[in-house]
Design brief:
The structure is a homodimer.
Chain A lengths: L4 H13 L6 H11 L5 E2 H10 L6 H13 L3 E4 L7 E4 L7 E5 L5 E4 L2 H14 L1 E14 L13
Parallel strand pairs in A: 4-6
Antiparallel strand pairs in A: 1-3, 2-3, 4-5
Helix pairs in contact in A: 2-4, 3-4
Chain B binds a DNA duplex through helix 4.
DNA sequence: TTCAGTGCAAAAACTTTGCAGGAGG
DNA sequence: CCTCCTGCAAAGTTTTTGCACTGAA
């Protein structure tokens, strides 16, 4: 049984439409990427694939993540640590992130008001918005959340 | 005549209070940093100082920028290009950024509503906020803004 | 005098690029 | 058969670290 049928169908359509080739490596990256429940880095994904005896190269992983972002199966996120984080965005609602600067724990939240502000500011300044990034940084009040502390990582 | 007297006073106070030493290198970094009108990167600042025959090392530049951020003379910004941007925050009001993904031009804006959302979400999720990051990405409607296009960069 | 701070260079972390060979269309 | 894609390794970019020396307190 196939693992991520809907996403694969979507990706196939995208590749065809954009005249990119359908290669097994690209779907291998898709599979490993969607196996993450949360955020991951490009290199982290590459390492994980290597450990699972995959033969894909760094170049292919980085290239494919870019394609998956273009067709909106994945989304890029930046949490201020100078690396690109990816997350599945396939069939997911827009959301933003709250990051604990002590334990690194990331909580997702949704607020309708944010897109309104984006539109409002953009109109005011004569700008065509294509996206935004909103992160809140701080500390878990509940010490249980901060148990990730020694988690290695 | 001294160049950034207020900031220097502030920095001196901070260093004393935190039991860090007062060194000429740290004030040299401060001077070069405040000479920027807009955002700059750590390495960029280091290169600029080198070209101006300064003798400071990378380690000192990075270290000092961290200290200047701690005492809020500078602020770190992340615009999604995997490098840390710094800007002067001394005596400046809070603001956020609107980034043209075509020409790279950055426009600042202010909206009181954003902090309210931060507080609202944080309360709701049991989180103590220490800061936030809000960037809008898109395209200058006015083609004149996009003249930065060939600007080198 | 003492040890935090410094310069230097090397390493680290993440990403991009060049090239030769291989496979998708 | 063409050329896009791939693997590999090397290089690029930004940041961090180790070490011996220096200078602020």
């Amino acid at each position: 049984m196939e693992k991520h049928p809907k996403a694969k169908e979507e990706f196939t359509g995208f590749l065809r439409q954009q005249k990119h080739r359908i290669t097994p490596e690209r779907f291998e990256v898709l599979d490993f990427a969607l196996d993450y429940d949360d955020h991951f880095g490009a290199d982290e994904l590459y390492i994980k694939m290597k450990m699972n005896k995959s033969n894909v190269s760094r170049a292919t992983v980085y290239n494919t993540l870019e394609l998956l972002t273009q067709c909106e199966i994945l989304a890029k996120r930046h949490f201020g640590d100078n690396k690109t984080h990816y997350e599945a965005s396939f069939n997911r609602k827009n959301h933003d992130h709250l990051i604990c600067t002590t334990c690194g724990h990331i909580t997702e939240f949704r607020s309708e008001k944010i897109q309104k502000i984006v539109d409002e500011i953009s109109t005011e300044l004569g700008f065509t918005p294509s996206g935004y990034s909103f992160n809140i940084f701080g500390f878990c009040k509940d010490k249980n959340h901060c148990s990730h502390f020694d988690d290695n990582g």
